[in-house]
Amino acid sequence: MKNRLKLLRVERDWTQEQLGQALGVSRQAVNALETEKHDPSLDLAYRIAVLFGRPVEDIFENPHA
Amino acid sequence: MIKSSPGWTPAARRYVFRTLAFMGGYVAIIIAVSSNAFDDIRNTPAAWALALTVSAPVIGQIWATLALMRESDEFVRAVTAKQFIAATGLTMAAATVWGFGETFAGAPHISTWLIYPAFWASFGLVAPFIRASN
Fold it and tell me: Which residues from B are below 8 Å from A60, CB to CB?
């Protein structure tokens, strides 16, 4: 799923490891999200949205829109 | 500020510890049963206790792998599950072909306990090709 996760993470100068800790997932999971190898669950997508203070659709492109 | 603590996840560390413990136990039991100490009970009902003892660490290792999936995040869980399922399918296919080979083509008999190392060999074959959850 296309997303702006890497851009938002780099803007805050966070590593994948640091973002993973903040979200409660592994560095591999963050990398997989950024490289579109994993579509997040609704729960994880909302956690990411809360962390960055943005609506989910600002971060993840809705493939059905 | 988010703290940084690089390295394996707690679930991965537990998996490695459990694997080393179970496989260490397996090697110790195999060495023990390879001696002549248990020859007297072979082919008796008591030999089933011996079979279960040797199998116990393998069952433990299967549990450790399933526990890794349960304790990991959603990405690691999904990828490991996909790899596990693909390896299981490949192993079942190979075992079925070999079994009918024994029945119809005179292929040499293989002990069924070899299915477990065969599964991990299959896992090693499929894992590099399954790196995404979607």
Answer: none
State the residue range of the domain holding A52: 5-56
Reported pTM = 0.88
Model confidence pLDDT, tens digit, residues A6-23: 999 999 999 999 999 999
* Residue of A17, A35, A43, A52 for testing the chain B interface, max B β-carbons within 10 Å: A17
Q: Is residue A49 part of a domain?
A: yes
ipTM for the predicted complex comes to: 0.94
Any CB–CB contact under 8 A between A39 and chain B? yes
Is the Cβ of A15 closer than 8 Å to some Cβ of chain B? yes
Say how many domains are in chain A. Answer: 1
**Any idea what the CATH number is for the domain that residue A15 is in?**
1.10.260.40
Residue A48 Cα to chain centre, angstroms: 5
Query: How distant, in Å, are the alpha carbons of A3, A46, B68, B72 from that of B65?
Result: 31, 29, 5, 11
Q: Look up residue B122 and give its amino acid.
A: S
CA B57 from chain centre, in angstroms, equals 9
The residue in chain B having the minimum alpha-carbon distance to the alpha carbon of residue A22 is B2
